[in-house]
Write a structure and sequence with these properties.
This protein is an all-alpha fold. It has helices spanning about 5-30, 40-55, 65-85, 105-115, 125, 130-160, 170-195, 225-235, 255-280, 285-310, 340-350, 365-380, 390-410, 420-445, 460-475, 490-520, 535-550, 555-560, 565-575; strands at about 205-210, 215-220, 415, 420. It has a two-stranded antiparallel ribbon. Strands 3-4 form a two-stranded antiparallel ribbon. A hairpin with a 2-residue loop joins β3 (about 415) and β4. The two termini are about 25 Å apart.
């Protein structure tokens, strides 16, 4: 650990916090249908979209209509992506002549990009054509990010509205989110990446002669990288154009591009906390939620940085002591140009959010470092989380925290003027329980099968358990990062992980929308002496505690057999 590493962390935090208010205020204006500085360009396009698609922008939906529209849109767009993958050998923009994607892998990939997971069981540059990357995958990065944002805003509307049977219009919310937020942001972002050296073209791959042996050749992949990279990070998607993801110099060529990437992962999720405060008329509550997220983020980074900055007991013959010419610590799986601090920061951010982009190999982290990045996902990715999904995920914990606070004082719990009753708690607990049920059931099933589950492992013992546990956690948590020691490109893993991702995304959105609809119908009640304030440091502490107890402790038995046991065995090996 070094002063330079902590300085990089501090600079990131300052810049991030400076963006919260302007980004959050802009998001609130867009999602409330108010005027923005882009209206003179985009309002005519927006009206044309409604007219051509037959959408009545003034029609409001109840939560069931909203959920049906969300599920229908996701299903149809997923089928379109599946068809593009299967037929890519017959479609244009395939200069490499790549074959059609196999049925199980196409299913897995379509489910992955539909759910904002971007789990990749394949090598992108040798599997997906340019058309598939652009029309199938990059467009889904816009769609899935927008779905997460609009579901979060629907929940915020449910909190805000009084005696209302509706929570907005899904098609209007989707259109405005994509048109006013994701497209302009990605356009500017992509141009910045191109300026840093990220390719953006439709050329065939380049064949180059190597300097060491001119008779040998090397194929250099390229393509429309910058456009996919921009929305991949801004929409917390994470799927790379190249297999090495953000460790590839064409995706992440400079320190500035690396900073842009980690900032863009958090910028919308952090801004949405201010949107929450502004839309509900309680700015202090938004800042309290942001504070809870930030505390968990800072704690996670500190542990990962500490763990990775220490020498690894099983690495021999490599300098692991920091000097003027050596970074020290566990550099296995990390790039020298990023070092320990930036690798730890990137890993913490990408697993706090439902992003999954990586600039290092999580499988090569120390047991404690791997424990933190895995636990970040197990918390439900509410530490900023994905665009939208992080906000509605932490609001579920807010409802539970308020309910627990109400039990402490023996009064009916209230949240921003709404009484939290049995139905609200049931929907919240359903959301919380679905997540571990999916992960632990699938992990157990594959651990018990030597031919289906264990045969894909590179490592045995507790690390092998962690690799399978991480895969299903990453899928259900819509993260997409992986412990690279698991070969998941098999029929069973592709199919199971596809369902894992769909259930972890769409099935968990239903209780969120049901909660939104129920809260919207309630009447607002004035605060009483027994009302627990949700805009104080005490509330932040309570919220952090509820997240850790309900999130982390649920998975403690599995973690104790994986990374915790691996750490203890490593320490025992040092003693003997």
């Amino acid at each position: 650990m070094s002063a330079n590493g902590w300085l990089q962390f501090a600079i990131f935090c300052v810049v991030l916090l400076a963006t919260v208010r302007p980004v959050g205020a802009y998001l609130a204006r867009v999602l409330e249908g108010e005027r923005t500085w882009l209206d003179f360009i985009l309002r005519p396009i927006e009206r044309l979209i409604y007219k051509s698609s037959g959408v009545n922008a003034k029609h409001e939906m109840n939560w069931r209509e909203y959920a049906f529209a969300m599920l229908g849109f996701s299903a149809i767009s997923m089928l379109v992506t599946y068809a593009i993958e299967r037929l890519q050998h017959m479609l244009p923009f395939n200069p490499q002549g790549l074959a059609g994607v196999g049925p199980d892998l196409a299913w897995n990939t379509a489910a992955s990009f539909t759910t904002n997971t971007n789990w990749q069981s394949y090598t992108p540059e040798t599997t997906m054509s340019y058309l598939t990357q652009m029309a199938g995958l990059a467009t889904h990065n816009f769609f899935s990010a927008a779905v997460g944002i609009v579901v979060a805003v629907a929940l915020v509307r449910g909190i805000k509205r009084t005696a209302s049977s509706t929570i907005g219009n899904f098609w209007v919310d989707m259109t405005r989110t994509i048109l006013y937020v994701l497209i302009p942001g990605s356009l500017v972002y992509a141009l910045l990446l191109v300026a840093q050296g990220v390719p953006q073209n439709l050329h065939a791959y380049t064949t180059a002669h190597t300097l060491e042996q001119p008779s040998q050749t090397q194929t250099i992949a390229q393509g429309p990288v910058a456009s996919q990279e921009a929305i991949k990070m801004l929409g917390t998607n994470g799927g790379g154009f190249f297999n090495a993801n953000s460790a590839h110099p064409f995706e992440n060529p400079t320190p500035f591009s690396n900073f842009l990437q980690i900032l863009s992962i958090f910028i919308i999720p952090a801004g949405l906390t201010y949107t929450l405060g502004q839309m509900t008329g309680s700015p202090g509550h938004g800042w309290a939620v942001l504070a809870a997220m930030f505390v968990l983020f800072a704690a996670g980074f500190s542990v990962v940085y500490w763990a990775e900055a220490h020498p690894h007991a099983l690495i021999h013959g490599a300098a692991q002591t920091a000097t003027l010419t050596a970074p020290g610590g566990n550099m296995e799986g990390k790039e020298v140009r990023n070092g320990i601090a930036e690798s730890a920061l990137f890993a913490t951010i990408t697993t706090d959010a439902s992003c999954g982009a990586v600039n290092g190999v999580h499988d090569s982290f120390t047991p404690l470092g791997g424990l933190v990045v895995l636990t970040n996902i197990m918390l439900g990715e509410v530490v900023f989380g994905g665009v939208g999904s992080g906000l509605y995920g932490i609001l579920i914990f807010v409802v539970l925290a308020v309910f627990i606070a109400g039990l402490m004082v023996g009064r009916t719990p209230e949240y921003l003027g709404k009484k939290i009753e049995a139905y609200d708690v049931k929907m919240s607990m359903l959301y919380v329980l679905i997540f571990p049920l999916i992960i632990l059931s699938l992990t157990a099933a594959f651990l018990l099968s030597p031919t289906i589950g264990l045969s894909s492992l590179t490592n045995q013992g507790p690390h092998g358990l962690t690799e399978i546990l991480y895969a299903f956690t990453s899928g259900a948590g819509n993260n997409g990062s992986a412990f690279a020691g698991l070969n998941a490109n098999t029929w069973w893993y592709n199919v199971a992980l596809g369902w894992d991702m769909l259930l972890g995304r769409l099935f968990m959105m239903i209780p969120v929308l049901a909660l939104a609809g129920n809260l919207a119908m309630k009447k607002s009640v004035p605060p009483s002496p027994g009302t627990f304030p949700v805009n104080t440091p005490l509330f932040t502490v309570l919220l952090v505690g509820v997240i850790l107890i309900l999130g982390a402790l649920t998975f403690f038995p599995a973690l104790s057999l994986g990374p915790i046991l691996e750490h203890l065995l490593l320490k025992a090996g040092q003693l003997f």
